[in-house]
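User: Okay, second chain of the day. Same drill as before: sequence in, structure tokens out.
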Amino acid sequence: RGTDFRATVQGDRLRAETLEGEVALQNRRGTTRLPAGTGSQARRGQAPEASARLLPAPRLDGLPEVIDRLPFRLPIDPVPGAVRYRTQIATDSGFSALESDRSTSEPVVLGGESLADGSYRLRARATDGRGLEGLNGERTVVINARPEPPYPQAPGGFATEERVRFEWAHSAEATRYHFELAADANFERILVTRDDLTAPQLTLEDELPSGDYWWRVARSTAAEGRGPFSDPQKFRRPPPGPAAEPPEVDADVLKLRWRATDGAERYHVQLARSADFEAPEYSLETTPAELEMPRPQGGTWHVRIRSQAADSPPGPWGKPQQIEVPHSHWRALLILLPLLLAL
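Assistant: Same drill. Structure tokens below.
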């Protein structure tokens, strides 16, 4: 009564650990008494070894209350003197029927992908160099890993379109998709929340300022309800291109200048007669924050610029500018002058 101990036979060795009360590890060669918190082992044909203190229980208060990924591998604080860690999971506090029993040399707790959603008791203990397992650390955890989140597809590491479009894998079982966009990785500054999506995509109505963003998506099904979010996906919104200053135009050259963009490695410049840039007449690149090109024909031109940093795609186009290139009437007169003199 009041005694709780573990006894394990492994090959030619018997190992015993006392958690409560006191037991005796005994064979023909001798006896070792094991009060609470101690353990020992005996090999075949040898007297039991002297008792030793069991390693303390691992601290599990840092584990999440809800686990939404399977299989899971969650870090815990190392136990001094431990060489291995064992995790056991059961549906009852007595651990009469284990749902999972896993060991590792790293200070982590483990759970397999076959665990069903629900509430469990989890216990972990550290093993010393003699193979003695220490005191139990226990807590209740809830597994809510289903339905699994859809796979995020776009955007990748950068988003340069005017209105960012998000895409994820289609699920035939999904009745709704749930979307969140945040300005931080912990989703403490959420910018967009949508719980009414029926298609595996979302295009933002407003243009995002430059900066780093994180997004995630979940799904609901008729059979399993709402599931967990996907892992956060990070992307960067490069700064928009600069605006051109008033041009310099002489007889043969058009010069454009603009404010340099921090980190820019090159600039892309387009000139088009049409304001929609559907078919720009000029598409040019330059390294400095200026461009010198042969003077185009006179009239109205539309100019837009975008910057590109190292190891990054080109950013969004800056606000288009309208410029006027004067018509070269003197050139026309020089062409007509010989004809006039011949009359």
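Residues 66-143 form a domain with the Immunoglobulin-like fold (CATH 2.60.40).

User: Thanks, on to the next one.
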